[in-house]
Amino acid sequence: MRKALREAEKARDMDEVPVGCVIVKDGKIVSRAHNLREKNQAATAHAELLAIQKANKKLNTWCLNECDLYVTLEPCMMCTGAIENARIHALYYGTSDEKAGTVDSLIQIKTLPHLRAYPKEIHSGILKEECAAILSEFFRNKRKIQKNKPKKG
Fold it and tell me: Please, which residues bridge with residue 83 across strands?
């Protein structure tokens, strides 16, 4: 998770929402990514999707059932679907996302019929405080900047 946090820091430094992800196979990182929605102007440029795409390419397979995914924020519906479709073995995430998380927060993915196969394991709260802090600080700074902008008109 510390490597995922480093990816989140890269996103923050690019003025992206600071979410980072790494995918691990046999104890080795096979891919890493961070949010790039603003840079790529792509709604799908979430850390998880980018890391899955990189792992697919590196391992030359769409099926990542021998891989574990570490992400700093609970995945959204799009990313949860991609994790399931990529057959990620285990999901580790840092902090919950009460507004958009679909692993445990808004939707409990394992309770839905036909979506119980993958990931085989879900572990939450990994470095929770650090993962929450980088997001809180980012949005606090965004609100300050917005508040201090001169009003037009």
Answer: none
